[in-house]
Amino acid sequence: MEATWKRATDDYCDWLAAGGGSKDLQRMRRHYLRGLSLDQPCGPWSLGLDELVRFVANPGWKPETRKAARGTIRAFYRWAVITERIDRDPSLLLPPVKIPPTKPRPAPDYVLSRAMLAAGPGRDQLMLLLASLAGLRRAEIATLRVEDVAGDTLYVRGKGGRTRVVPLHRTLEPELSAWLAGRLEGWVFPGREDGHLSAHHVGKRLSVLLGPGWSAHKLRHRFASRAYAADRDLLAVQSLLGHTRPETTARYVAMPDDALRAAVAAA
Fold first, then answer.
1. Which end of the chain is less enclosed by CB atoms within 10 A, N or C?
2. Positive or negative torsion for Cα 47, 50, 52, 54
3. Does the annotation mark 110 as catalytic?
């Protein structure tokens, strides 16, 4: 990475860290800024809107990737203006990226059962249960602390530093209690990422156990769909998942078949 790019990226990530930005967030920001630096090695302060548009318009990217790249660029140049590195934000008019509607794809019973058998008792099974019975993201599993477990309640620190309350499922509670037996503090899953497992490791391990086409995120879809089916309360599911908008939660929920049939019967 060219020296000016490297200095700017390092300073920006230090700023994120000072504000409580997670390691995963910093890693993602570095990834896209690295790509932009390779595309535009002249340095970050000489770029205009056209160069940024060409980068974000990468034809090989999916809309989700394009949106993440745009988000990084917008945040980076806002920081540059705030810290008076530049006078004008060249990313200000970057067009928003539309994500095509997608259907939720909850992992089915046979996929989860197969993964549980492959995992065997212990850490991997517990990670599967935290994703499927508590709806935790892979980063939330990786950074879960012993102190976050209080009786039959889980306090989950999610995106944006927000903490949400998730009641423990009757199957998950004894498994988690057994795993934490005798421990009063520390990481639930110790590892080498600042003392805990990395989100990447958790995600990769669960994907291997679940098999091709399935991931920790699809277990989160499963949790959302089953939680919604219980009493059709989308706001409750939103709270359990830690979403800020119900529209986001709706993308995770597979509509129960009986709800569709009941709606047609009532027409």
1. C
2. negative
3. no
Is a pLDDT exceeding 70 seen at residue 105? yes
Neighbours of 260 (CB within 10 A): 10
Catalytic residue among 29, 137, 138, 205: 137
pLDDT for 237 equals 95
Residues 68 and 148 both lie in one domain? no
Residue 103's pLDDT is 87
The total of structural domains in the chain comes to 2
In this structure, the number of other CB atoms found within 10 A of the CB of residue 172 comes to 19
Residue pointed to by tokens 């503090």: 185
Catalytic residue status for 252: yes
Q: What percent of the chain is modeled with pLDDT above 90?
A: 80
Asked if 50 and 137 sit in the same domain, the reply is no
Report the pLDDT value the prediction gives residue 1, as an integer from 0 to 100.
Answer: 58
Annotated catalytic residue 200: no
Q: What are the tokens at 256?
A: 């129960």
For position 115, which CATH number holds? Answer: 1.10.443.10
Same domain, 182 and 242: yes
Q: What are the two backbone dihedrals, phi and then psi, of residue 176, each rounded to the nearest 5 degrees?
A: -70, -40
pLDDT in tens, 65-88: 999 999 999 999 999 999 999 999
Structural domain boundaries enclosing 40: 3-82
Annotated catalytic residue, options 30, 34, 159, 164? 159
User: Considering the domain boundaries, does residue 166 fall inside one?
Assistant: yes
**Residue 137 among the catalytic residues:** yes
